[in-house]
Design goal:
Number of strands: 0
Order of helices and strands: HHHHH
Number of domains: 2
Helix content: 40-55%
Shape: rod-shaped
Radius of gyration: 34 Å
Largest sheet: none
Number of helices: 5
Strand content: under 5%
């Protein structure tokens, strides 16, 4: 059985040495069978089992390709993790996600001076420094209708 973490080529070398000590007629077929049955990665094993005309050469090429792609993926993930740590934005430039919506415009921003409603008039009630989207006029009308 291939041990997790051991390279496929080491596993293949051990298999070939073991098969040479047997009297099996078709040693390539035996090696191919042992690869399929003893590979440590379940996904690779399933792919090999699903191949209708699997030869030893195809099995070896496929297992090597999987090993290389996993190695490259691991290296890429590691590199991405390092880059993510390096490029972490400073806290001053990070927007505060816990800010509540502005009662004047409905947007999230830090200061009233940055509010886009400042200097504008509400289209519903004509009061200054409000947008119609946050106008309380409709709520006041509903309260009067209820009473």
């Amino acid at each position: 059985m291939q041990a997790e973490g051991h390279t496929f080529d080491n596993f293949l070398t051990q298999l070939r040495k073991a098969v040479k000590t047997t009297s099996y007629q078709n040693q390539d077929e035996m090696v191919r069978g042992r690869i399929v049955m003893s590979i440590w990665d379940n996904n690779t094993q399933e792919k090999l089992l699903s191949e209708p005309k699997l030869t030893l050469t195809k099995a070896i090429e496929f297992c090597r390709a999987v090993e290389v792609s996993k190695s490259q993926s691991k290296a890429l993930q590691s590199e991405l993790g390092v880059n993510a740590l390096r490029s972490k934005p400073s806290s001053s430039s990070t927007p505060n996600l816990n800010q509540s919506s502005c009662h004047r415009c409905g947007y999230k921003h830090k200061e009233n001076a940055n509010c886009p409603a400042i200097g504008k008039s509400c289209a519903k009630c004509q009061k200054p420094n409000y947008f119609a989207s946050v106008c309380k006029l409709d709520e006041k009308k509903k309260e009067k209708d209820r009473s």
